[in-house]
Amino acid sequence: MPRVLIIGAGGQIGSELTFKLKDIYGSENVVATDINFNNLDVVNSGLFEIVDAQDYNSIRTCVEKHQIDTIYLMAAMLSATGEKYPMKAWDLNMDSLFHVLNLAKEGFIKHIFWPSSIAVFGPTTPQVQTPQHTTMEPTTVYGITKQVGERWCEYYHTKYGVDVRSLRYPGIISWKTMPGGGTTDYAVEIYHKAILEGEYTCFLSENTELPMMFMDDAINATVQLMQANPEDVKIRSSYNLAAINFTPKQISEAIQKHIPEFKISYEPDFRQQIADSWPKSINDTSARTDWNWKHEFDLEKMTSEMITQLRKTYK
Ligand code: AKB
């Protein structure tokens, strides 16, 4: 049984990964950590420790205390917040990655999952069916940290034999924990506002198409990649990963099938420029071929699940 540590377990993806990994490996083998106690569902779900992702000793102490062999590093500052605090984003995203890579290099842990993002791509990247290997000139601080991080992951794997695996997540849509500070966050907020207020003002323009994915698919991809045979994991920078692509107009039409009176308006802000620099769709053939990745949720299925679950939450 792996002994797992999740850093950033209180966040949107970290929280659901925590619940899933506890289901698979048993609560006693999974230690959730975050820098605060904010997510009570996670804090109360079993083993929980306060860990500062920027403090090497804080992570190492926790690793040694719980005899951890696998770390999922989910703490990061995302694209929109990163533009407000560039140096903080650089420090958090890079320090935490180096700490974890070095713990593996020094023999304290054996396996690492580290998420990359579609933010590694930029305005000079082909925007439709973006290939795995292509021009990457990110224009956000977050994108720069993810691109540089990918190079370091591959470097640690090649030079030091570190088993680090990574996915370029698209925008992730879920109902349990809110995302924070991302450009794709509108696609979560819209469902909450649709249920609570029947209307939503979107910070991206109506025809801004972006790659997206329902949380269950993202978690399954993560688990599948981490369980894959090492020889099948041929890419050690980060895998392109895709499911669905849609615009604010298309998601609002999908919501209107369940809530006919729902209204959307558009007030694009600084996040429009970030979205415009990212792909509209992603080619993830390598993930599908190397370790049999398949997604399950399309826009309709995801919308129906989001609305059902949020109606229960807000009842
Ligand atoms: C963001 O919008 O910053 C993130 C991402 C695409 O990595 N959701």
UniProtKB/TrEMBL annotation:
Residue intervals of the NAD-dependent epimerase/dehydratase domain: 4-233
InterPro entries linked: Epimerase_deHydtase, NAD(P)-bd_dom_sf, NAD(P)_epim/dehydratase
Family: Belongs to the NAD(P)-dependent epimerase/dehydratase family.
Protein name (Swiss-Prot/TrEMBL): NAD-dependent epimerase/dehydratase family protein
Organism field: Psychroserpens algicola
